[in-house]
Specification:
This protein has one domain (13-195, 212-407): Up-down Bundle (Growth Hormone, Chain: A), CATH 1.20.1250. Helices cover 80% and strands 0% of the residues. It has helices at residues 17-48, 51-76, 81-104, 110-139, 144-172, 175-194, 214-222, 224-240, 247-254, 259-283, 292-309, 313-341, 347-360, 362-376, 378-407. Helix 2 runs parallel beside helix 4, helix 3 packs antiparallel against helix 4 and helix 8 runs parallel beside helix 13 (347-360). The radius of gyration is 20 Å and the shape is globular.
């Protein structure tokens, strides 16, 4: 039996002190990051009244990931990851502080927001692979999957907390306060990284070899299941997950609500995603994943279509909660399937390519969603994205079923 197939206890990664510190820092920092995400979208909408500009800022923020994250993975394999993360998080703090000061002093423009979004995206292109590959060093290989699930749970729980706080703070104090809070939140993750101590359970004692994505690409393209999951992920990154940058437009133009309502919608997505992520983290390897990813993918698309037709805030909030749940289940199960199916010697490269698809392809999604919303309305954008996701899930399921019938 391989290590990937051996049952592991739920929440086993919490046995490791360094991972517990990491998780606390991530919780605080990600809460601040979600506050900035909400505030930045609302700020751009106030400055421009343009759905396309909202999507364009998101595109500029994530475009560097598309361009540099593969190289970021190479760098991560050649440096001390903890020290590298300390540097990158410090620079991210400065970026958030600059945006806060510009907004508070009334000097902020869309140009400044775009420039700082590009800086943040460039830092993220190096931070994401370094952070993800640091997980195994903190927990060791045997608790890696639990660490991934808990990290995903933290991400989605903060998706609830951050937007909810942001909506209240924007309404009560102003947009700049959200940026100041995000800058301060980086202090928590910096402190947690600084007080980590050896031993790092999964740190390799051997020098890194040459890093290349060529073998990982060949494995994905030549193996049916990873190839299907890759195609599904691309479709979702471009047409499905792009609904999130359009939520400020949806809240304002369709539901007629303000910043508080927008924050509630973002939190609704997070509630559903958090419930799904915590469920997967708790159940661990008891969850049977085969085939279910296509069901959750189709459900996500169908819920997006429903949200495009919603006429009231309550209905829209409920549908977006279900969308968040299906979104998280699809993402977590895809991630898990790719990791458990990949050979040990290719797992890092496969997951690097997966991160490239999920984060790096997001600019194209935000751009198309903004353009469709600008010209045809945000309802059409949501319906189009949901329809593509349903079609992609059905085609992937049909292909997988045909392969099973052929081999049986």
């Amino acid at each position: 039996m391989t290590a990937a197939a051996t049952p592991r206890p739920a929440f086993g990664a919490l046995r490791h002190r360094n991972f517990r510190l990491f998780l606390v820092g991530q919780f605080v920092s990600l809460s601040g990051t979600w506050m900035q995400t909400v505030a930045q979208g609302w700020l751009v909408l106030q400055l421009t009244q343009s759905a396309f500009q909202v999507g364009l800022v998101t595109t500029i923020n994530t475009l560097p990931v598309l361009l540099f994250t593969l190289y970021g993975g190479v760098v991560a394999d050649r440096v001390n990851k903890r020290r590298f993360l300390l540097i990158l998080q410090s620079l991210m703090l400065l970026e958030a502080l600059a945006l806060a000061l510009l907004t508070a002093t009334g000097h902020v423009t869309v140009g400044w927001v775009m420039a700082l979004a590009a800086v943040q995206g460039l830092l993220a292109a190096f931070e994401i692979p370094a952070r993800q590959s640091f997980l195994v060093e903190m927990t060791g290989r045997e608790d890696l999957m639990t660490a991934i699930a808990l990290n995903s749970s933290t991400f989605n729980v903060t998706r609830v907390i951050g937007p909810a706080i942001a909506g209240i703070v924007i309404a009560a104090i102003g947009i700049a306060a959200c940026f100041f809070v995000n800058a301060a939140s980086y202090l928590a993750v910096l402190w947690m990284l600084a007080i980590m101590r050896p031993p790092f359970a999964g740190a390799s004692g051997t020098p890194p070899g040459k890093s290349s994505f060529r073998d990982g690409w060949r494995y994905i393209m030549d193996t049916p299941e990873p190839r299907l999951l890759t195609m599904l992920t691309i479709a979702f990154s471009v047409f499905g997950f792009s609904f999130a940058p359009m939520l400020p437009v949806y809240a304002s133009q369709v539901l007629g609500t303000g910043a508080t309502g927008y924050g509630a919608l973002m939190s609704g997505v997070g509630v559903g995603a958090a419930v799904a992520a915590i469920f997967v983290a708790a159940m661990g390897h008891r969850v049977q994943q085969e085939g279910r990813v296509f069901v959750f993918a189709a459900l996500f698309g169908a819920v997006l279509i429903g949200a495009s037709l919603a006429g009231g805030f309550g209905v829209a909030l409920g549908l977006l909660m279900f969308a968040g749940c299906a979104w998280a289940l699809t993402s977590i199960l895809t991630n898990t399937l790719l990791q458990t199916k990949a050979p040990d010697e290719l797992r890092g490269r496969v997951m690097g390519f997966y991160s490239f698809m999920v984060v790096g392809m997001a600019p194209l999604g935000a751009l198309q969603a903004g353009w469709v919303s600008e010209h045809f309305g945000v309802r059409v954008s949501l319906a189009l994205g949901g329809g593509v996701c349903v079609a992609a899930a059905w085609l992937a399921w049909r292909s997988a079923r045909r392969r099973v019938l052929v081999t049986s």
